[in-house]
Amino acid sequence: MKNRSNPKHILVTGGAGFIGSNLVLTLQERFPKAWMVVVDDFRSGNFKNLTGFRGDVIARDVSRMNWREQFGKTRFDVIFHEASITDTTEHNQQLQTHDNVEGFRRVLDFATDVGTPVVYASSAATYGISTDQINVETQSPKPANVYAFSKVILDNLARHYARRFSRTPIVGIRYFNVYGPREAHKGVPASMIYHLAQQIRAGKRPRVFKYGEQKRDFVYVKDVVAATMLGWGAPSGVYNAGSGCACSFNQVINELQRVMGTKLKTEYFDNPYSFYQPHTEADLTLSRRVLRYRPQYSLRQGIEDYHASGFLAG
User: Fold this and answer.
1) Where exactly are the structural domains of the chain?
2) Architecture in CATH for domain 9-179+218-244+283-296
3) Which residues are catalytic?
4) Residue 155 host element (H or E)
5) Whole-model pTM?
6) For the purposes of burial, counting CB atoms within 10 Å of the CB of 245, is it exposed (0-12), middle (13-18) or buried (19 or more)?
């Protein structure tokens, strides 16, 4: 792919958010000569996440911004689209669907005009509710909330534009349950790993739904960033980015207490959510074959690195 080894201009939407900021800072380290531009309206991002960033920041809403007016004749080597309303408990259907879908549509219209590759954030939430199923990209989507529905529409749009503009790669990276540094600002939507760590740090019993055997494909943010960067240069399509292993909340609590040196008794309570996913697990066959994606962090290794980073302290 042209300019992948020596890009001049890189754009990241949602670059002040959790995954976006980790991506931005990794790209900056990998390509120190590239001019990087972040677009973020800071509704769910935080300027502190971009400490050390040496590029430009445009504080705009991607779903309402006039892209051609904003950037003129600037040609980007790649656009990483991370901007989204990520709060799955935001049930305003018009807001979620408009901002997530129209933001992506504007990105695609801008990018396909000049053939700029796009790598965007899809979500494992599109798979819906299953008890023990391994999630494969060819599954029919079954969104259980409007956030997941909006991500399904993003995937639909990506396929449509990829067929119309075959010379413009449009790659979706389907994130599973991501955790790691720079997520604290998210509040309630932050990972269960972060929230459980805060409870334990405060001397409180860790609380999870009965009886902690729900399983998630917890994937460390460094692995997700690696998968996203591998998406640049891949053929158009959607690819899973998980750890490839489903771990229970009880396992998470055990690992957290191990690194934090505590032995608090877990408190179990009833699950009030009908749309709650009891099991997520990424099939990585396609990602391994096409992206050459190889996750480097097990649950234990990810929690250890997270704890060592100092970010887990909140």
Assistant:
1) 9-179+218-244+283-296
2) 3-Layer(aba) Sandwich (3.40)
3) 147, 186
4) helix 146-164
5) 0.95
6) middle
Strands 218-220 and 237-241: unpaired
Give the Cα separation of 81 and 119 in Å (integer): 6
**Sequential pLDDT tens for the chain (314 residues):** 456 788 999 999 999 999 999 999 999 999 999 999 999 999 989 999 999 999 999 999 999 999 999 999 899 999 999 999 877 667 789 999 999 999 999 999 999 999 999 999 999 999 998 766 899 999 999 998 999 999 999 999 999 999 999 999 999 999 999 999 999 999 888 999 999 999 999 999 999 999 999 999 999 999 999 999 999 999 999 999 999 999 999 999 999 999 999 999 999 999 887 777 788 999 999 999 999 999 999 999 999 999 999 999 86
Q: Pairing state of beta strands 215-216 and 247-248?
A: antiparallel
Q: How far apart are CA 314 and CA 311, in angstroms?
A: 6
